[in-house]
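sanity check this:
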Amino acid sequence: MTDTTDSGPGGYAAARLRLLQEGSRSGPPRRSALADLTDQWLAALLTGGVESAGIGRGAALVAVGGYGRGELSPRSDLDVLLLHDGTADRSALAALADHIWYPVWDMGLALDHSVRTPDEARGTAAEDLKVQLGLLDARHIAGDAALTADLRTAVLADWRAQAPRRLPELHALCQERGERHGELQFLLEPDLKEARGGLRDATALRAIAASWLADAPREGLDEARGRLLDARDALHLSTGRATERLALQEQDQVAGALGLLDADALLRQIYESARIISYASDVTWREVERVLRARSATRPRLRALLGGRAGRGGGSGPDAGERSPLAEGVVEQDGEVVLARTARPDRDPVLPLRAAAAAAQAGLPLSLHAVRRLSAAARPLPVPWPPEAREQLITLLGAGESTVGVWEALEAEGLITRLLPDWERVRCRPQRNPVHRWTVDRHLVETAVRASALSRRVGRPDLLLVAALLHDIGKGWPGDHSVAGETIARDVAARIGFDRADVAVLATLVRHHLLLVETATRRDLDDPATVRSVAEAVGGATTLELLHALTEADALATGPAAWSAWRGSLVADLVKRVSAVLAGEPADDWSTPQRTTAEQERLAVEAWRTGGPVLALHARSEALAPGDAGGPEWAPDEGTTGPEPIGVELLIAVPDQPGVLPIAAGVLALHRLTVRAADLRAVDLPKELDTAGAADGVLLLSWRVAAEYGSLPQAARLRNDLLRALDGSLDIVARLAEREAAYRKYPRRHGVHAPPPRVTVAPGSSQLATVIEVRAQDAPGLLHRIGRALEATGVAVRSAHVSTLGANAVDAFYVTDASGAPLKPLHATEIAQQVEQTLTGSPPGQ
């Protein structure tokens, strides 16, 4: 037998290493074997310590927490209690503890240890909920087994007696932890233990079951917990650290260790497991609250009965058997939606949707028993669906926030994929774009929730809600998800029972759900070709109205970086122009002077008169869109106090000359200003000035910027640096290169490698210019580098439209040749390739 007390090559350390390196054992068998191996080692340490300390009976070594459950991952802490009966003296106990603890520390293992009598352990548990939870999983390792058994019995009795008080405390602890760490089923870099739906919640469900007050749904729960433990094991082995956070850079390696195809397959498996645990937690905590509520209502009635004061009906609490009808075959009972006694799911295929719609409209949860009965007994809907089924689906989607919980209940029992088979491909599918806060399926439901709040803005709210549910349904298929989604949407809409005209509208909405926001933020709205192309794609005023609402709902459901008042104003402006074209009005001609505000004209005139740049800064919050009145001019000085605006609108007017865009962008980068949006165009001067020799005109640059760090710079400093950059006395390229070199001296967090920049030509986007579109990872000085790259090719930038979504920059540049004409197709492709090569090369100045 191997001497496990020896930490040398033949002892515990070597045996542990061999076990962790075995390819044949993983998952529960390896965790169990690691716990057994550790038990043997600690038991030998206890035996040797008892002998050397001179302690006879009355001492035991007890595993608690995860170790007590036998769930030892490669880098897990050892949670150990040295239990004694109080007869040994303190010095002997201290010697025994040192004999056990020091070899563990020498091994480099994390140890959570304590030395207590049974009464002390119970007393500590009564004061500390986390200690009590750990003791619920107490398991005997070695020593006096009767001592451990007595402690387990007493701890369980205490827990059950104190459950009405401790369970609400545990629930609050779980909720606070979930708010702090987020929901595991939606996080790109989840904490497998602490996030909602993680291992901590699975442990809490075990504690609830031990209280005998309620029990969690068992189906799939152990498997879900096991998959999270397997992922944690692989994470520990791949990183060599005791980490619970599945970082992006570790996911491919962890996926490979688990035999999964890639990181997306790993995340999807983790999300599915977390969803099972989260749903089980919701159902179980709801049952706990119901039981505690019933107990608190029963006691006054019982006291009244014993006192002889109860009238007919007994007390003031609600009758637990009382049922209130909500819909045909659906009633409310005790705060949940259940099936009526006369309901026949086997004869009523619409009942699942009717029950779900009634629950969502009432703001109540569907009971677990009702959902399971519907899943087991309900017949499939005929195809196409009967009108009532379609109406119930629309009613469910239009219920607002309460739709989410009801939808999750249906999904947990497989009813959603039975109703909509195409849902399976988007279920639990991760979205790698950090702008998105949800998985694909949850994003679709959240979009429907947002769309329900906009339903009064459209004439066909039913089409809006269904389009919201289906707009990203193509993300489960290869290729452009909008193109794939159009085909799927046609099939689903026909299955649901819409007529041909409505099917065509829904298909158009899904195909073009990104059209408005992409066009508004990346194209020149003063170019008539832009407006006409949108009008041709949309086809009619009703579809445009629906698409406008869908665009807003989609962006709001995506995340805070996807929508703002500024983007909303651009989309609204585009919709107004397209509406005019659809109504038969001619599109604005780009050759006519563009609309210029009084302030813009004032800045342009001043720039022409002074021959230098003129700046104006306005405080802008997300609630204000560019051009709105009410933004006070902002020029901070040394005495400025109070909160600064989170972003500012910066207007720069400068006499037209080569290189204005990269120079201005470089100055902003030097001042650590993050460009959230930008627009460049020429401004026509008043006729009296134009005839005076101002033929070159003035360029107007509209920026929306925020400080990357610290405070916003003073307007005077910006103007001075811009003057120096324009006259060549400020070397922007060298300054940015110095900063980049300084950054490289400091270690950075190792994150996921960003995909390379992509530069393309957008054919047909304009009749008067060529549109070059740049998509890249946002970084300080990026716009400066793009501007320099375009300038180096010899093209003229007629206008620019810059937008930033999270960490992604999507910029469009309208360029012409020296004569002012659009580029030839071959030349445009060469320009795009040159810019892309520049951006994929070295940092600025390198």
Q: What stands out?
A: The longest strand covers residues 673-683.
